[in-house]
Amino acid sequence: MSARDTILQALRTNRPSPEQYPLPPVATLGDLDASRERFITSLKILGGDVLERQGDETLDAAIARRFPDAKNVCSAVPETNGTMRAETLKTPQDAKDVDIAVVRAAFGIAETGSIFLSEKQLPLNSLAHLAQHIVILLSPDEITANMHTAYQKRPEFRSANYGVLMSGPSATADIQGVLIRGAQGVRSLSVWFC
Predict the structure, then answer these.
(1) N- to C-terminal Cα separation, the chain
(2) 26: closest CA among 147, 146, 152?
(3) What whole-number distance in Å separates Cα of residue 109 and Cα of residue 163?
(4) What is d(CA 128, CA 133) in angstroms, rounded to the nearest whole number?
(5) pLDDT tens, 39-82?
(6) What is the DSSP string of the chain?
């Protein structure tokens, strides 16, 4: 047994029990406004946008309006079939030609304009990063105020094997302080409320 294994085994053996030493309660801090309006304001600050329904427009019609040149729409939701289903993608390379990924967020965070995705929403996690654009379906009832309330109230933090908080499209300002969107991921992130 190596020194590393000996140390790790000693830590496992001597770990205090949760009953004996319970974790302290998580504090509820900050503004508790979990409104759709606050979420939208935060989302737009970080470069995201809302795909607004026009009249009785369907999701498919809204996507076609926003992205008229898109050829490959990969859907992970029942609300649209797109041109391909996310479940058919097996490797990250399969997502290389996806123009638009359509997924449903488990929840959103109003303070940061973030959405949470896990393996339940993304059959292939690279889909959310390799697609050119991403359309996120979000129920306004699934918006929580901030990270504190998200951690307290959302079971996904404890149950997900993989999780990502996305706050707008990919962006970098490393080179001469010029902001570039879509440099290492999606070029746009749009939220469709439903």
Answers:
(1) 55
(2) 152
(3) 14
(4) 9
(5) 999 999 989 999 999 999 999 999 999 999 999 999 999 999 99
(6) --HHHHHHHHHHHTPPPTTTSPPPPPP--S-----HHHHHHHHHHTT-EE----TT--HHHHHHHH-TT---EEE-STT---SEEGGG--SGGGGTT-SEEEEE-SEEETTTTEEEEETTT-SSTTHHHHSSEEEEEE-GGGEESSHHHHHHH-THHHH-SSEEEE-SS-EE-TTTT--EETSSS-SEEEEEE-
Question: Which structure tokens are listed for 28?
Answer: 């509820």
Q: What is the torsion angle, in degrees rounded to the nearest 10, for the CA atoms of residue 146, residue 149, residue 153 and residue 157?
A: 60
Structure tokens given for 183: 């440099």
Q: Which two tokens stand for residue 175?
A: 């080179």
Question: Identity (one letter) of the amino acid at 130?
Answer: L
pTM across the whole model: 0.83
- Two tokens, residue 1: 């047994």
Residue with tokens 């001597």: 14
Instruction: Specify whether the CB–CB gap between 132 and 186 falls below 8 A.
Output: yes
Per-residue pLDDT tens over the stretch 80-137:
999 999 999 999 999 999 999 999 999 999 999 999 999 999 989 899 999 999 999 9
